[in-house]
């Protein structure tokens, strides 16, 4: 039997073909995903370091594709950005998340705040603040219970435009956070001018924080920078007790990650909160 280059080549082509087919399938069916009820939202708790209580939850969208199964957001959000579906999907996530936060509050669960991710295209949309304001009025959610997460690379794209957009969101009374912090190129002078409230340390630093002295140094520096600018710091992707203890010892305010909980469905979250009297 000849294990030749052709076999390898064949394997690669069929792999690529499958990838391409899936990509095309996603592109054509994403338009109907919302109407077909294929999208759903999971919520991941954020834990406050000093009290141990659940401080809020992040809304993370999922796509249950009839053929492809669970498609992760990292695969379909970029497609949605490209073909414009993100406008409808983003608004849907925002409405659902705000309505869900209200429901939890009505169940007399603690005053949970909900975080929603905004993609670059949504953030650059001139009517964004108006739409967010409308959703807050429609759902009756207190504005300070909504946090909007915008990635560092998005806010740094056009900093003057970003300041204007952030200001109009800030006037609504929502909480603004810079997501995946440390992975983009921040100008520190810009950071000072942004009306933001929170920096979220990217998971890539957190995952090695207890083994890699560089990641530890960067993480400490981000925490010091945030506190110096009067911002809160959230660490994402906390998977171990050691990471949590390191972050706590270094003054991180909130943490989020599989160590505490994976993203879960709304009912599961309510059960978790009921079971945990500190929350
Ligand atoms: P992100 O905003 O940085 O969200 C955090 C991601 O890390 C989530 O992945 C979450 O499930 C995952 N994660 C949380 N804790 C851990 C942990 O301890 N270990 C590891 N390995 N991972 C953890 P997910 O849900 O697959 O989302 C991926 C990205 O997709 C998000 O990254 C966000 O950029 C984007 N995304 C998700 N939902 C939305 C949405 O509604 N709108 C927009 N525009 N983007 C979204
Ligand atoms: Ca996020
Ligand atoms: Ca993040
Ligand atoms: Ca991230």
From TrEMBL:
Annotated EAL domain residues: 23-277
N-terminal signal peptide: none
Superkingdom per UniProt: Bacteria
Name used for this protein in its record: Diguanylate cyclase (GGDEF) domain-containing protein
Source organism: Pollutimonas bauzanensis
């Amino acid at each position: 039997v000849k294990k030749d280059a052709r076999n390898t080549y064949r394997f690669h082509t069929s792999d690529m073909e499958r990838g391409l087919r899936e990509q095309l399938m996603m592109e054509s069916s994403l338009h109907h995903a919302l109407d077909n009820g294929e999208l759903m939202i999971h919520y991941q708790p954020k834990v406050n370091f000093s009290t141990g209580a659940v401080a809020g939850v992040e809304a993370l969208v999922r796509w249950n594709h009839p053929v492809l199964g669970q498609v992760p957001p990292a695969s379909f959000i970029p497609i949605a950005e490209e073909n414009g579906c993100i406008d409808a999907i983003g608004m849907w996530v925002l409405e659902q998340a705000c309505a869900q936060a209200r429901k939890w509050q009505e169940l007399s669960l603690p005053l949970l705040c909900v975080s929603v991710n905004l993609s670059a295209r949504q953030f650059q949309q001139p009517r964004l603040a108006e739409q967010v304001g409308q959703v807050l009025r429609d759902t009756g959610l207190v504005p300070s219970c909504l946090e909007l997460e915008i990635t560092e690379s998005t806010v740094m794209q056009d900093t003057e435009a970003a300041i204007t957009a952030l200001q109009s969101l800030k006037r609504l009374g929502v909480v603004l956070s810079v997501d995946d912090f440390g992975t983009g190129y921040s100008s520190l002078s810009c950071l000072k001018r942004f009306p933001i409230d929170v920096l979220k340390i990217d998971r890539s630093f957190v995952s090695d924080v207890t083994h890699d002295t560089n990641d530890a140094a960067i993480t400490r520096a981000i925490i010091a920078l945030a506190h110096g600018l009067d911002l809160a710091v959230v660490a994402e992707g906390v998977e171990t007790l050691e990471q949590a203890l390191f972050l706590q010892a270094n003054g991180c305010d909130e943490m989020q990650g599989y160590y505490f909980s994976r993203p879960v469905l709304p009912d599961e979250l309510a059960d978790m909160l009921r079971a945990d009297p500190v929350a």
